[in-house]
Amino acid sequence: MWAMIRGVPHGLVYVRLWREADRPLIFGGKKMRTGSKNPLSDCTLCPRECHVDRLAGQRGYCGQTAQIVAARAALHYWEEPCISGRAGSGAVFFCGCPLRCSFCQNRDIAAGRAGREVGTERLAEIFLHLQQQGANNINLVTATHFVPLLVPALEAAKDRGLRIPVVYNTSSYEKVSTLRMLDGLVDIYLPDLKYVSSALSGLLSNAPDYFETAQEALAEMVRQTGKPLFLSPEGKRLDAEQMNEACCGEEGDLADADFLMQKGVIVRHLALPGQREDSRRVLRYLHRTYGNRIYISLMNQYTPMPGAALKLPELGRKLTQEEYEALTGYAIALGVENGFLQEGDTVGESFIPDFDGTGL
Ligand code: SF4
């Protein structure tokens, strides 16, 4: 279950419970914004910079060619409440991953062991179908390596009536140049900030440059979206402060899930067992850099996966309640006002849906 960190008048802070060869990509008669040379022919889309020809079927670190592969497209109810709302988020889970963390809970799709091919036109239809199903947004999960293919799908879907916000859900191991292809197409970024320590990111994600890369990526995301903006049940546009007042005031018996994010950035941090100091560094960085211009989502759902302890012994266990409470207390003491917490034993909860090709 999610809870929220909110600032209230008087400066007090509290937690409130609630419930293809080198040719331009053409689609729909339009030349793509990805440039004249197809970026997949010499792929440097992400910081791995593999320089493989994905159009010729070569695979780099992410494990994917120039064909979109996804594992599921369906309503999803386990994101932060302003993303899932009551009707659910229209989540599309893509296969392959440029980061490949050793503790990944979605390793079957990250490693490309599941999923089916989806053409660009079909992907646009999927977005529109999710909207027809009542989705509050289109939620693109781990799509970095498919961005040049996503762009025409999003443009086509918008041309045909896609009106709900588009969410880009990412590890933050992203190049600014790739994110810029999405400028004006993505409304909400849902990035992770996993580590500050390069030793930790090198050990667990084979990415010693993770933090410096993510820093630049986050700055670009915030630049694109601006401050958080929400839609009230009455259809009013509210900033974060107005939303907090509407939820927490005397008439504020509306649930947080009634206020849907329309624009903004929510940075997620999954607290890892035994890594308190690095988690603190993540929180300090985010709060000092962005203050209340972003939301911070502090997650306690780390689940030990087979073999995770081989890299770091503490990863063989769950996060303790004491560790999580110490971290949430630290966030509140820092002055974080716009944030989300998780409550209860989320390790056993099914945040991971069946990757069985539903909706594709
Ligand atoms: S997107 Fe894939 S192939 Fe391209 S640089 Fe990244 S990991 Fe390598």
Q: What would you note in describing this structure?
A:
- The structure is a single chain.
- The chain is of the alpha/beta class and 360 residues long.
- It has a single domain (71-347), classed as Alpha-Beta Barrel (TIM Barrel), CATH 3.20.20.70.
- It has helices at residues 81-84, 107-110, 120-132, 147-159, 176-180, 198-205, 210-225, 240-248, 276-290, 321-334, and strands spanning 2-7, 13-17, 26-27, 30-31, 69-76, 89-94, 116-117, 138-141, 166-170, 188-191, 229-231, 237-239, 260-270, 295-299, 339-342.
- Strands 1, 2, 5, 6, 7, 8, 9, 10, 11, 12, 13, 14 and 15 form a 13-stranded mixed sheet that branches.
- The model is unreliable at 7-31 (pLDDT under 50).
Q: Biggest β-sheet, characterized?
A: 13 strands, mixed
Number of strands: 15
Amount of helix: 25-40%
Could you give the distance between the termini?
29 Å
Counted by DSSP, the helix tally is 10
- Ligand inventory: iron/sulfur cluster
Briefly note the structural class of the backbone. Answer: alpha/beta
**CATH C-level label:** Alpha Beta
Radius of gyration: 20 Å
Share in β-strands:
15-25%
Cα shape: globular
Please mark out the parts with pLDDT under 50 across 5 or more consecutive residues, or reply none: 7-31
Q: CATH topology, which one?
A: TIM Barrel
What number of domains?
1
Q: Topology as H/E string?
A: EEEEEHEHEHEHEHEHHEEHEHEHE
User: What is the CATH-assigned architecture?
Assistant: Alpha-Beta Barrel
Find the CATH superfamily.
Aldolase class I
Rounded average pLDDT = 88
Oligomer category? single chain
